[in-house]
Each structure stands twice: as structure tokens, then as C-alpha cells.
Amino acid sequence: MAPFRSLLFLFIITLCVTLTAPANSLPTFFPRAAAYQSPVKQATAPKPNLPFNTHYFPQTLDHFTFQPKSYKTFYQKYLINTQYWHKGAPIFVYTGNEGDIDWFAANTGFMLDIAPKFKALLVFIEHRFYGESMPFGKDSYMSAKTLGYLNSQQALADFAVLIRSLKQNLSSEASPVVVFGGSYGGMLAAWFRLKYPHVAVGALASSAPILQFDKIIPWSSFYDAVSQDFKDVSQNCYEVIKGSWAELEAISTQKEGLTELSKAFRTCKTLHSTASVLGWLWTAFVYTAMVNYPTEANFLKPLPAYPVQQMCKIIDKSPSGATKLSRAFAAASLYYNYSRTENCFEVEHEVDTHGLHGWDWQTCTEMVMPMTCSNESMFPPSGFDYKRFAEQCQMKYGVLPRQHWITTEFGGERIEEVLKRFGSNIIFSNGMQDPWSRGGVLRNISTSIIALVTEKGAHHVDFRAATKDDPDWLMELRRQEVEIIQKWLNEYYFDLGHA
Ligand SMILES: *[C@@H]1O[C@H](CO)[C@@H](O)[C@H](O)[C@H]1NC(C)=O
Ligand SMILES: *[C@@H]1O[C@H](CO)[C@@H](O)[C@H](O)[C@H]1NC(C)=O
Ligand SMILES: *[C@@H]1O[C@H](CO)[C@@H](O)[C@H](O)[C@H]1NC(C)=O
Ligand SMILES: *[C@@H]1O[C@H](CO)[C@@H](O)[C@H](O)[C@H]1NC(C)=O
């Protein structure tokens, strides 16, 4: 039985509960991987009109072994903008994450905004196994034999190799490189600075939850933070959502319940289970919390400014007789239909517009981020069943997760003491509206490993292109980032001149 709508997206969240249906009454952590039986349509997003040229770099398949088959190459896509640059000037590299690179470039207007000031060359490198950078073409996702080459260490090595080659081709070996990344891309940027300090002089890691592993932070943090976002708007809003799950569960036992529910939720096809509705609502609340931006934006979907407030307004202003579930539905409709163009809702089938499905494999191998729902969260309470999770991964891919690999490879425990004595030039920026912020670095570690925290910020909001409606705190955050990067570069050029 696969009752879950799989949740696609960057930093794909995982439902931390099953609906307590009679057949499956144990609350369980369901990885996306396990939920992955409903067909996911592949679609191509319209290509944004970006000021970049596209290139393809022959990249080595396996950087870490020297067997003949490791030498196979594949084409890794990267985007480049040379409009402001001259030889010797800085190179700003976006370390691509789990999706096609055009999408990240379109949503990282910040780099374009600051390029003229630094006369920077901009490069956006696609992560292997995403977008067009498929090492085995259409067969890339066939099995663990091919997917085995999809991991963060190979991705970091790809970036290093490509950057070196690019600098050589530009005859600009002395250009300082600064890496930028958001979300998983931010984790990669921070790790890149730690692993390849000779390639990048600094990293701006926005909304990078590098502490979301093992037992570094409480497992309930993520969903507690989502809930807090709603509670901060209104207690009633939080309570309505929290109370809606029981109403949904009651429907699963009613005759004609699913037919009625399909009508009420305006689904395109009659529902097979209430669990898909749980996933659909869940997705709307979680992703809206993540992208609770201060201005109208279209990252995952088009949404108004501060969409959590808008959702709660819908809930709080519903007619007094309305059920909690119908209020939750009305709120979720904001997420799915702010464009006002949906005729019906595809509750059981979703469309993967940005080619994100490789994240599934990554969560089943190295990116094990345990999550639970506490009693205080607005979601049904549940624990994390590692054994169950591992079984699902085994079933799907024939491999088991390596639960402690990330903290072994990159650290994370006692990060403050460790990085205080090692490492430099990293900005960790986090907005507390973003539930991933709880897994981020929220305190200054040293004079050059800086945490910039904004109370009202959401998921890598600083990376969005500036707009005329940006609030002061956001402009100030970006100003600080620019100032710190400028300092790194000044130091670099000073050292270069005195070498
Ligand atoms: C650098 O030039 C070589 C030779 O033309 C080419 O194969 C390689 O793809 C170039 N590197 C990058 C990063 O484009
Ligand atoms: C989406 O919004 C439009 C405009 O308000 C409305 O006519 C339509 O019924 C909505 N779609 C769904 C599925 O609710
Ligand atoms: C959550 O609530 C349940 C049932 O009320 C209770 O048994 C459990 O101890 C509570 N857990 C926590 C962590 O408070
Ligand atoms: C870290 O230090 C910077 C100044 O370098 C300061 O602006 C910022 O608020 C500090 N961050 C935290 C979380 O205290």
C-alpha cells in the first residue's frame, strides 16, 4: 500500500506520519522513496529568459576510483554570464542542487544584482543526475548501479574540476572564486569551502540545514517550526489545521466518504484514499511556510506576499459553521490556485516540473534527515522508525541508507568548537520563518564564519532578485552579505599582491 503522495521539491520534505487507517495503524516515518508508487509526470518548465550562455563540460563519472569505467565522461551543464567580468576579477559560482539549473538561476537574481559591483563572472553549475546532466542519459535512474554515482561528494568534486578547467580556459587562474548556494545547494557551498579551500575563497550558504542529521538537532524541529509559523499568525489558524486531520480520518470510515471528499476538494478524479488528501494539504502548509516571502513571488508556485498570513486569514474568516477540514482546504487552495487557473486539483498525481526526483535516491542513501511530529505540532504526532525507513529504501533501490555518513564526511556535531579552530569565510544565512532554519547554523562561530539570521526571512529569501517592495531587513541582510564578500576579496587581493 502506498498511501502517500510523494512530495517533490527541493529539500523535499517527508511526511512524518501515516494516516491511521485500519490497515496500517502504526505511525511511521514514510520517506518519499517509499511513497513513490503513484506515477509522477515529467514535465518541462518553460525556460526562463535568462542572461546566460549554456555550456556542457565533459565531466568524469567517478572522481574517487581509478577503474577503467570511472573514466567515462558525461556532459555537465553550466550557465555563464561574462557581461561584467574582466580577467582577474572574481568568479561567483552557484553550486547547483537537486533540480535543473535554469530554475535555480531564475530564482537567484541576487547574484545577477551584485555582479556589476564586483565585476564578477557568474557561473551556475548543474548538479549531476539533475536537469540535463545525466551521466547515463535516460537510463540514469535505472538502478543503484547507475544511481550509485549520485552523491554529494561526487558533486563537490565535479564543481572543483569544472571550476579549475574554466579558469584555465579563461587564462584567469588568479581570479578568486566565491561559491553560493541555497538549501541543499547551500550545504554544498559550505562543504565546498571546507573541502576545497584552495578553489574557493569563501561561501555564502543560504538556508543550508547542515545540522539536520543524526541527533544534532531535535527531530521534531522542522514540523514544530512550520506549526510555529501558523501559530504566530493566529492561534485559531493553528488549531483549525491541527483539528482538521481527525475530520479527514473520520471520512475514511464513511460510506460514500471518498466521493463526497472528491467533490468537496474539487479533485480531477475520484479519490482512492484520504491519505492523498493528507499529503496534499500537508504539502501546501509546509511549502507555504518555507516560501513565506515578504513580496509576491513564484518559486514553487505563484503566491502572494506573506502567504502564511493569507492562509490564516482565509481560515479565520471562514463562515462559523464551516468544518475545520473545509477551512483547511480553502487555505490550501491559496497554494494550489493563487493563479486562479486551476479547474480541478490533481490531488493524487503531481507534476515534477523541475526534475527533482533524484532527491529520492539521495535521501535513501546519504541524506538521512530524521523528522518527527511532536504533540505540539499542527500535524498528527508521530515518531521516526528508522528500521521501516531502511526497509523501504532497500525495497525501492536495493541499498540501505548510511545513516551517519554525512556527519562522518562533513561533520556537524559540535560544529561551533570544530569550526572555531578550523575553517573561515562562510556566511550562513537563515530566515526563521523557514522551517529548515532550525537545522542551520544560527550563531556566529568566529570572526569569519558568520551567521546572519532574520526573524522574518523564509527559504533563501536573500537569493531572490531585489524588488522595489523589499522590506528594510532584507535589504540590510543583502548589504551585510555584500560587505562580507567584499572583505574576503580584499583580503585575497591583498595577499596576492604580497605573495
Ligand atoms: C575548457 O576547454 C576545453 C578544451 O576546449 C574543453 O574541453 C572544456 O570543456 C573547457 N572547460 C569548460 C569548463 O568549459
Ligand atoms: C481556482 O480559482 C478560480 C478563480 O477564483 C475558480 O474559478 C476555480 O474554481 C478555482 N479552482 C478550484 C479547483 O478550486
Ligand atoms: C503526546 O501525547 C500522547 C497522548 O496524549 C502521550 O502519550 C505522549 O506521552 C505525548 N508525548 C509527548 C512527547 O508529550
Ligand atoms: C554575527 O556577527 C555579525 C557581525 O559580524 C552580526 O551582524 C550578526 O548579527 C551576528 N549574528 C548573530 C546570529 O548574532
Automatic annotation (TrEMBL):
Protease among keywords: yes
InterPro entries found in the cross-reference section: AB_hydrolase_fold, Peptidase_S28, Ser_carbopepase_S28_SKS
Signal peptide limits: 1-25
Any GO MF annotation of the entry: dipeptidyl-peptidase activity
UniProt keyword Glycoprotein, yes or no: yes
GO BP: proteolysis
Keywords from the named record: Glycoprotein, Hydrolase, Protease, Signal
PANTHER family listed in its UniProt record: ALPHA_BETA-HYDROLASES SUPERFAMILY PROTEIN, PROTEASE S28 PRO-X CARBOXYPEPTIDASE-RELATED
Family: Belongs to the peptidase S28 family.
Name this protein carries in UniProt: Lysosomal Pro-X carboxypeptidase
Taxonomic classification: Eukaryota, Viridiplantae, Streptophyta, Embryophyta, Tracheophyta
